[in-house]
Amino acid sequence: MIYLDYAATTPLHEEVLEGYYKVLKQYYGNSDSLHEIGRKADRLMKQSRMQVASSLCVKETEIFFTSCASESNNMAIKGYAFANAHKGKHLITTAVEHSSVLETMKQLEEVFGFSITYLPVSEDGVVRLSDLAAAVREDTILVSCMYINNETGAINPIKELAAYVHTHTKAVFHCDCVQALGKYELPLQDVDMATMSAHKIYGLKGCGLLYKREHLPIIALISAGQQEQHLRGGTSNAPAYTMWAKTIRLALDHQREHFAYVKTLHEMLYEAFSNMEGFVINSPQNGSVYILNVSCEQIGSEIMLNALNARGFAVSAQSTCASKGKPHSYVLAAMGLGELRATHAIRISLSHLTTIAEIEQFLQVIKEIYHEYRT
Ligand SMILES: Cc1ncc(COP(=O)(O)O)c(C=O)c1O
């Protein structure tokens, strides 16, 4: 099988696997226990937090380990909204966020009486500063905008958007950086909170991270013990959290060379799809080099995915979290690309592990499928 679905998840790095196995076996103590077995696990976790903070150029007290990026998004948005509702009950996000942001916002609106504004995006899938400026209100307390869109690779101008929020409002800025970590430089100095996930960068599944600027008030969604500065209770998953350090180091150490290589793959794909009969590119040309979204207007997403799968290629149609429903990309719809493109799209996502030969085979096969299935 040729895997071209790296935005959904990645295979585990061998070094992370080896390290994890060792830590799981040898450091099984509860990191909150006072005896030496617990203290050893705690020390490893602390070291990892320090290394992660140093890699990201932030303070270790600003790093919170979680079970996944979906949890981090919930923790940041609900945690901040609940702790600051007395300042205002208006939040702003975009129409194209990951479901963990959109569903969180929906719940805040429907269950907890907050008011939410969903910013539109341009035809390139990018948020415009003018739309943000028009949406902010006196009672806006938080703006959440992703850095790189997981379906199209569109890159938002986070520095500019966050600067506007900080100079013109009293709101804080949260950024979902899941598809950017290890690929693009993160705008952590510009934002107040940021979300990351290990399994998108060859780390463990069930392992997320929230960066939260020091002293920014949020409340715990999992109330229990002293873990994560009392902001996320429950026995720490110390072995998994310990592996964050290695995961992030491996990703950042090789970020530049991986990026340069993947850019050549992306150019190859972009060029091929620009000239391919029956296909239209949905991703902006200046988007992430790791993601390319295309539609074949004569073949629906599901049929295309199944045909590719049958020939040994793994790609996605939309965000994997929504993949069990009827294929319809709310992201492409929000970009104004029309119903047909939204229901006939596939996402190809790349890695430094992808070879040129794999791309060549993929292009060959997708052309064959087009000729076989077109109506
Ligand atoms: C942009 C974005 N945010 C959040 C998530 C959720 O990540 P996790 O699987 O760690 O919950 C994903 C995963 O697809 C994503 O692409």
Automatic annotation (TrEMBL):
Lineage top rank: taxon: Bacteria
Pfam family, one: Aminotran_5
Cofactor(s) required, per the database record: pyridoxal 5'-phosphate
Keyword set, alphabetical order: Iron, Iron-sulfur, Metal-binding, Pyridoxal phosphate
Domain (Aminotransferase class V) ranges: 2-362
Family matches, as Gene3D superfamilies: 1.10.260.50, Aspartate Aminotransferase, domain 1 (3.90.1150.10), Type I PLP-dependent aspartate aminotransferase-like (Major domain) (3.40.640.10)
InterPro entries assigned: Aminotrans_V_dom, Aminotrans_V_PyrdxlP_BS, Cysteine_dSase, PyrdxlP-dep_Trfase, PyrdxlP-dep_Trfase_major, PyrdxlP-dep_Trfase_small
Cleavable signal peptide: none
Family named by the database record: Belongs to the class-V pyridoxal-phosphate-dependent aminotransferase family. NifS/IscS subfamily.
Official protein name in the record: Cysteine desulfurase
Species this protein is from: Massilicoli timonensis
